[in-house]
Amino acid sequence: MYTGIVQGLCDVASVANEPGLRRIRVQIGDLSAGLELGASVAINGVCLTATEVKAGSACFDVVRETLNHTNLGALAQGSRVNVERSFRVGDEIGGHILSGHVVGTVAVDAVEEGENERNLWFRVEADWLRFLHHKGFAALDGASLTIAAVDASTQRIKVSLIPETIARTTLGSVVQGDQVNLEIDPQTRAIVETVERILAEREARSEGKMPSIRTPSAPI
To answer: Which CATH architecture has domain 104-202?
Structure first.
């Protein structure tokens, strides 16, 4: 589990393609202290398992399923990635609870540069847009961010970055067309899907398309 507070903007040291997977080594520096084999680390928001740790670097095996649904397949030597170690019970949670389970990637649609801020617009598939709302949150490349605006007509969301986020994450350098990993709030998703299911069942009953569910009579 993670909090969406990126701890390091780190360099990819090497990328090696193996049968059915890609092996990525990241120079994580001091974040390697105490990191054990099998530990979970978020790389651009994707929960990965450390398969080797040495000399301030860690290696991760990325299987085809992950490559198909995240931006990790585009990494090359010299790429920079957001890194967060999993949080421990008792740690301060400064962002939001994340699992590192990315639903897919979203494209940077527009970049608005301002004084001490950077506004990013992302185009989001309709299936995921319904779980995102103004002042809600989303994790983008593993960074927990508040949604500043939602434009349903163009299927876009906007986030506003402060100087700290600009300097410490990949989002400070993305450009139009770049793909960024998206993780949505699982609680919001569960609520929306439950409400949608209940409304659909109610409509189906009113149209006679499914039998009504009778509540057993209470014993006398």
So the answer is: Beta Barrel (2.40)
**H-type helices in the chain, by residue range?**
64-69, 126-129, 163-168, 186-206
pTM to 2 decimals? 0.87
Helices (H), ranges, 70-178? 126-129, 163-168
Q: How far is CA 123 from CA 77, 154, 177, in A?
A: 27, 8, 10
User: Which residue is it, tokens 């059915």?
Assistant: 20
Task: For the domain made up of 8-85, give the CATH fold.
Answer: Elongation Factor Tu (Ef-tu); domain 3 (2.40.30)
β 143-151/156-161 pair status: antiparallel
Closest CA to 42 of 12, 6, 76, 77: 6
Band of pLDDT at residue 211, cut at 50, 70 and 90: low
Q: Where in the chain is the domain with CATH 2.40.30.20?
A: 8-85, 104-202
Q: pLDDT digit string (tens) for 48-58?
A: 999 999 989 99
Q: How many CB atoms lie within 10 A of CB 164?
A: 10
Task: Give percent of the chain with pLDDT exceeding 70.
Answer: 94
Q: Residue 215: which pLDDT band, with cuts at 50, 70 and 90?
A: very low
Tally of CB atoms within 10 A around 179: 17
Distance CA 28, CA 166 (A): 19
Residue 31 main-chain phi, psi, to 5 deg? -70, -10
- How many residues comprise the chain? 220
Please identify which residue in the block is written with the tokens 């793909």.
179
Residue 180: which of 162, 196, 159 has the closest Cα? 159
